[in-house]
Amino acid sequence: MASDAIDAPTAAADSSAAPAGVAHPKAIRSYVIRAGRVTTGQAKALETLGPRFVLDYAAQPFDAVAAFGRTAPLILEIGFGMGDATAHIASVRPEDNFLCCEVHEPGVGALLKRVGEQNIENIRILQHDAVEVIDHMLPEGSLDGVHIFFPDPWHKKRHNKRRLIQAPLVAKLAARLKPGGYIHCATDWEPYAEQILEVLSADPHLVNTAPAYAPQPAYRPLTKFENRGLRLGHGVWDLVFRRR
Question: Whole-model pTM?
Answer without folding.
Answer: 0.84
